[in-house]
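Protein: TatD family hydrolase
Species: Alicyclobacillus dauci
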Amino acid sequence: MLFDTHCHLMDEQFVDDLDDVLSRARQEGVTRIVIPAVDVPTAHRAIAIAEANPGVYAAVGVHPEAAKDVPAEDFAEVERLAQHPKVVAIGEIGLDYYWDAAPRPEQQSVMRRQVEIAKRVQLPIIVHNRESTADIVELLKDSGASQVRGVMHCFSETLDVAKECMELGFYISFGGPVTFKKADDVREVAANIPADRLLVETDSPYLTPHPFRGKRNEPARVRLVAEKLAEIRGVSLSELAAQTTSNALELFTKVQRDE
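Structure follows.
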């Protein structure tokens, strides 16, 4: 059993063949998927897909690339949607200093407000970090994010950064880049994450694992991520799958265990 903890099935790239995508995922042993939103409209789409498909869940939140001029009613709507039985996290939230689509203080404010929402509704957070590591770690510490915990999605930082995040109760998730030929640094970190803090994801339709780079990613390919992680950690695929699924269930407590 595999658990794709981060897959944007609400993306327009899946409009025409979503049923086939989900069927292929099931054929590869993917039994559970979390769809993180990037804004309020995609949150509604993610929930609709989750409602229609067993084993599929949603996260709701405003991504840093959508953090410019967020109206107050959007935060209220995120909090309202968080009450839905198939919403298991607040996300995808965080900071992105690569695109800088919103001023950095504004990104930080939007993230802080959503951490506060997570604390009120008692859901974990899904954290996006791109070229903003120092500020992300500081914000997680001083916002009290350890009260709800969460996942550092598509992790690509150092082991020391991972340790700081794990000290706050966060899980470390790896996706397609761990399979890339020149990603030795990522693999070295992944080999040293404690087994009980490790998660797998695809970030579909992005970051397609080797040997399918350049093609649309989809949740079935989380198996390739898991196979690579099992290889570098010296365990079987079945052991890696069981451990990462157990970890995801411990984090996303609203996910049904009997599906």
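Remarks: The chain has one domain: 2-251.
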